[in-house]
């Protein structure tokens, strides 16, 4: 994505790999929109921690990070014994898989890597194949998001008011995003429209990340409190909803996405507003048979009980800040506890269409179209 930092526009991928240093390079998303920084992880354990701690987040981005993390881990292996190498690979895989449970992209990406690595006959060959496959996963993610943009752009008519939830944007993928890809493609076609970004408590990915991306891209937008969408829909101020997904069940068309997505889908149905979900193929889970089987991440209660932000200290006699630091502020009643499920599941009947890199499908048609969607029966 093209980011203007300090007045200079440069293109960055959200996730990249430094081959010489064997490290994964990540945009430090917890600092955005206040500071733009690239961090690098020294080993696969640090890469897994970056996923857990949400330095990097979003289904496609953590898929690419896990793929690079697996390549990083297997490339760090010293020796030529295939048995030891395979035990080491299994350990790297498990550590990265456990980093976050709901998004299926990391598992799909790492399974691809293992399949491709199996063609190697020596440790060195397998290490080289792992890196090539991780690079391929990242590039495919970019291509898929661009294709989603092309299929989704016509849904955004002139002067449309589009609601999106959380951040399924550039930052949630390697580039372009899923839910935002149709917006960027519509903008490139000269269509004028307006986006409402749900704030997306508790971590505020809409208010911080999506709003930052849209501002970088000069797309008209406003942040709304999560509870405001129903009111705007009732007043006829929202024409279309596009969200992303962390796991979409190929067999049922159910969609796991950031907590609050289900509520928006119910509201959209109540008001007759089209509700679309945009996904690359790596977000499809062809195995699970019910949304109830999707592991829903429960995050720490502190996210609900307070909020993170930047505290700036102004320089004396000036309005520009002399320094700024990231800080946590407790908001809730000190004696109260909280529940913090990170995701919810939207049933197929509330979804108008799933925008994929190969076309737009009814959610329940995914299984029928599985061959076109990359599912191979073995
Ligand atoms: O917890 P996060 O920020 O990793 O959640 C992922 C998301 O941003 C959303 O659920 C998004 O809509 C789908 S990820 C492409």
**Topology as H/E string?**
EEEEEHHHHHEHEHEHEEEHEEHEEEEE
State the domain count.
Answer: 2
Whole-number mean pLDDT: 96
The count of DSSP E runs of length 2 or more, i.e. the number of strands, is 18
CATH superfamily grouping of the largest domain = Translation initiation factor eif-2b, domain 2
Rg, alpha carbons:
21 Å
The coarse silhouette is globular
Helicity, as a percent range: 25-40%
Uncertain parts: none
What would CATH call the class of the largest domain? Alpha Beta
Name of the CATH architecture of the largest domain: 3-Layer(aba) Sandwich
Proportion of beta-strand residues: 15-25%
Q: Specify the number of helices.
A: 10
Bound compounds, each kind once, are: 5-S-methyl-1-O-phosphono-5-thio-D-ribulose
Quaternary structure annotation? single chain
Model description:
The protein is 33% helix and 21% strand. The chain has a seven-stranded mixed sheet, sandwiched between helices. Strands 13-10-11-16 form a four-stranded mixed sheet, covered by helices on one side. Helix 1 (44-52) packs antiparallel against helix 2, helix 2 (59-75) packs parallel to helix 4 and helix 2 (59-75) packs antiparallel against helix 5 (123-152). It has 378 residues and is an alpha/beta fold. The protein has helices at residues 44-52, 59-75, 82-97, 105-117, 123-152, 181-188, 205-216, 229-234, 261-270, 302-305; strands at 2-5, 8-11, 15-18, 23-27, 38-41, 161-164, 194-198, 221-224, 240-243, 247-249, 255-258, 275-278, 284-285, 306-314, 321-330, 343-346, 353-356, 359-361. It folds into two domains: 2-144, translation initiation factor eif-2b, domain 1 (Four Helix Bundle (Hemerythrin (Met), subunit A), Up-down Bundle), CATH 1.20.120.420; 148-295 and 341-365, Rossmann fold, CATH 3.40.50.10470. The protein has ten helices and 18 strands. The mean pLDDT is 96. The radius of gyration is 21 Å and the shape is globular.
